[in-house]
Amino acid sequence: MTLLQRIKNAVRKRSIHICYVNTGSCNGCDIEILACLSPRYDIEQYGIYVHNNPREADVILITGAMSAQWIDKLPDLWDRVPGPKAAVTIGNCPISGCAFNRPGSLIDPPVSKYIPVAAAIPGCPPRPTEIISAILNVADTLFENYEIKSRGKKP
Amino acid sequence: MKKVVDVSLPIGPVHPCFKEPARIKCETCGERVIATEVELGYVKKGIEKIMVGRPWQETIFLAERVCGICSVVHNTAIVGALEKISSIAVPPRAMYLRIILNELDRMQSHLLANYSYCYTIEHETLAMYLLNLRETIMDAIEIMTGTRIMAAYVVPGGVREDISAATADAVRAATFHIETELPRFVKMFETGPMIALRSKGIGILSVEDAKKSGVVGPMARASGIPCDARDQVPLYQELGWHMITRSEGDNFARIMLRFDELFQSASIIKNALAALPSGPVRLGGRVVSGRCRNVIEAPRGNLTYDIAVDEVGRVISVAIQTPSIMNVEVGSHAMMRNLASIADVTATFISTDPCIACAER
Amino acid sequence: MDLIYERNLQPLKLAVLKGTRQDLAVIALASRLGISRQRMRNILIHRCDMMFLENLGPRLEAADAAAAGDAVAEALSLPHLTTATGLLSVEAAAEFCRCAKSGVLLSDIIIDILEVIA
């Protein structure tokens, strides 16, 4: 492992930028992400910054069950996120549609049909601590030695 | 909207200020915003459609998932409608517990709304103070019901479980903490010169515009319209509720009104805990067929459930009218017209406390 | 990559109008003007934005209250078309109101109104 790679690994572990995308959830998961910002949980002490801007994000948090407007927009948004990147879904909705997945509803779960999902946190809604620990675990494993792992693959 | 404009500027759907996706199309002339239009459809799930034909037990869970911020009030509204249809009696202790939980919910929702506004006008210090204060309320809700959000605490015929003396003490301590901490933050907001520059006289909602679109809740009360469904509930009057109104109708008035209501909610909770009667918290009953319209006061205004049930307990039709529909509509068409700067669009939009999940269902 | 900034919102607007309360409001407005529900939906989808459509019920209720005292406005449902939905400009509504007071048959005026808003 080169020195440059080691520096990259160390930096990426301490600086994770987040964008959360609500693709048709009920707000419950979104306000649990907001609660992570509060000084009680203090998400920034782990080097996680919530900017909500896809163009500078490393991890995208997806809540919600894919409503009609997002079906073309979510893959588009995923393309604009610079690599290395990961998508983490929060709550039951992106996995199965939760209570809304019934005949006649206007949603089309799961989210993994549209973009590659790295991790899923079930719960309706999950607690803020679970969200923080999942982000940290995903970032550590996915972003470590990213250049070595992605060698030979198309960018 | 066909007008001669310089630029049609879209804001959203993913934007640093927004908790939820909505797209605001601003027609601008220079820096001045002439008109705005809110484009929806990002969180449309069709909850009213999937409720029809289901047993009423399932619709209670679905109603709770209309909105995650004010899930308690949706739960209370649909259960209240079903109780009215079948004339199920609610024991007095359960009535008090419902009021305590609803006021806790109102407090956390108002704190979240004020946090969002302070965050949008880039006063992050005050925003973080308020968000941390909200955790105290979330803890009280968790101690009382067992979970932070989606508590399913209100059931037909009462509430799910009783509270112990220790729980009551914890809730009382939480309200006491809010009452001692909050005045400092209110003073920061009230006297901050930069906050006043960003808030006073911006996004004014006139009484005519408010009447035209049927605005409810804190937005109507900040414009001087006394509109609160709690005045129909005698128990609230006993616990010391009174109408709070302001006359300015700008962003500053809306946020200050929410602060005032926080103190009122805290005192209602204290009074309710002091006067909590003893007795059972849950009685039974049978759901019969019928139709009913139930209006209760959500954190954002009047929430109406119009529900019809057949004799085996299936829902025939349901119409949910959430307060955010009226408030976001008047926000986009009346308040954001002729704003001086594009930066005021997000601040004005957030000051209406928009809940897109409520508005679209 | 295509940049989709403006997409066709008609199916989404129709989904909004199919909501229980919005549907009742559309039926009430259509029967006031004497046209079918489908034609009323078509007019509203083409002329109003999504937030207006969501808020159709309370706005039409407010217009009902505004029209209650005025016989001409009630018959032509002018407040519903101007303040509530914005289909008709205030000047045009005043013109129709003047026509009605000068003795033109109300049914003829409604045909004219439908031509303007369609």
Task: Describe the structure in your own words.
The complex is a heterotrimer of chains A (155), B (361) and C (118). Chain A has 155 residues and is an alpha/beta fold. Chain A has 6 helices and 5 strands; from the N terminus they run αβαββαβαβαα. Chain A has a single domain, classed as Rossmann fold (3-Layer(aba) Sandwich). Chain A has a 5-stranded parallel sheet with strand order 2-1-3-4-5. Chain A is globular, with a radius of gyration of 16 Å. Chain A starts with a helix and ends in a 6-residue tail after the last helix. Chain B is built from 14 helices and 8 strands. The model of chain B has no long low-confidence stretch (mean pLDDT 86). Chain C is mainly α and 118 residues long. Helices cover 74% and strands 0% of the residues of chain C. Chain C starts with 9 loop residues before the first helix and ends with a helix. The interface between A and B is large, with 43 and 38 residues.
Q: Please give the most extensive interface between any two protein chains, plus how many residues each contributes.
A: A-B, 43 and 38 residues
Roughly how much helix do the residues of chain A carry, as a percent range?
Answer: 25-40%
Q: Give the domain tally of chain C.
A: 1
Number of helices of chain C: 9
The CATH C-level class name of chain A: Alpha Beta
Structural class of chain A: alpha/beta
Rg of chain C: 15 Å
List the defining traits of the structure above:
heterotrimer, A: 155 residues, alpha/beta, Rossmann fold, 5-stranded parallel sheet, 5 strands, globular, C: 118 residues, mainly alpha, 9 helices, 74% helix
Topology:
The complex is a heterotrimer of chains A (155), B (361) and C (118).
Chain A: H1 3-14, E1 16-22, H2 28-37, E2 48-50, E3 59-63, H3 70-80, E4 86-90, H4 93-96, E5 119-121, H5 128-143, H6 146-149
Parallel strand pairs in A: 1-2, 1-3, 3-4, 4-5
Chain B: E1 7-11, E2 23-29, E3 32-39, H1 47-51, H2 56-64, H3 71-86, H4 92-120, H5 124-145, E4 154-155, E5 158-159, H6 165-191, H7 193-199, H8 207-213, H9 217-222, H10 234-238, H11 251-274, E6 290-298, E7 301-309, E8 315-321, H12 323-335, H13 343-351, H14 356-360
Antiparallel strand pairs in B: 1-2, 2-3, 4-5, 6-7, 7-8
Chain C: H1 10-17, H2 20-33, H3 37-47, H4 50-54, H5 56-67, H6 71-76, H7 78-84, H8 90-101, H9 106-117
Helix pairs in contact in C: 2-3, 5-7
